[in-house]
Known about the structure:
The protein is of the alpha+beta class. Helices cover about 65% and strands about 10% of the residues.
Amino acid sequence: MTPQYMTENLVRVDRSILMLLLASMANLCLTTNAMAIDIITRKSQENRISGEVTSISKTAIKVKQQTGAEIEIPANDIDLIEWDAAPATLKAAIGQEANGNYDAAISSLQTVLDGLPVTATNVRTDVQFFIARALAKAALADSARMPEAIARMKAFTDGNITSFRYYEAMDYLGRLYLATNDYTQAEAAFTSVENSPFDDWKLSAQSSKARVMLAQNQVDQALSAFDAVLKAPAKDESSKQRQLEAKLGKAKCLNIKNQYDQALKLLAEVISNAQESDSRLQGEAQVLRGTALLGQGKTQEAILAYLLVDILFSGQQDYHAEALYNLAKLWPSVGQPGRAEEARANLETKYPNSPWTKKLSGV
Length: 363
């Protein structure tokens, strides 16, 4: 056998091996590409999960991971799902909502919704919820938008009873009913959330039902209900965060009862223990601080509390409107009539249909 013949055979073998390797790689790529890659951000973990969401219910989703076994994630632990079929513009629209730019978010989300293919069912459901949620947040500061917000959120809960967003949507629906003084419907919505299998949502619903009592001037009953939430065992961080909501509710009751020292003590605990990113909790805490400090005759300190809402938590439009109302009332007492007019102008321009705007105008 000549060296040349041996070399030619080796080349043929090498080529055969190379072709087999390329075919294997191609098959691997086809297999990988066939699997949808959804990315799930959990509330309880920093690391995100990548895989394909294979089933959805109102209590959990199942995910076939890229590597590893299929896992089940409880609905109350899901922060966000970046769907494989979602356009890149969806993430930016969600960011607009998070920043309090609700009208821009609704417009962007509607554009996303209109452009989705019929097959993108999961994305469509999520976008419909995001639109309803942004509208609900806007309506809390704009009473003129309440009918549309309630209709939109109710349409979502009625049509998506098996969605992992269901309990969150029912919570928003309850808040909207409460804001319109429809206490029967509000309590019914919160009862649905209370019947969930999740401890943190149960505590949240119990606090919300206490707020229904408070809205009806049942202060002592509400105070007892908030105390019951605070005495319940908190088995995880999420439940502990929900108890901070109860502390806010209790502080509001104490303000009404002129027990400002106790209210301020509770509010300090909330501000210290709430996550910095939880602007909803932080915003309400500062508004309630302002009320308590004002009750103690500490006008300058109260102004500072309301200013924090104006500067840091303006995305929480209902609390921002309340803060602007108080600033418009309080600035003249410290020799700042110009700043009072500025606060009034901001309130009337940004929130023309807010109850705080009407109150300031004497309507």
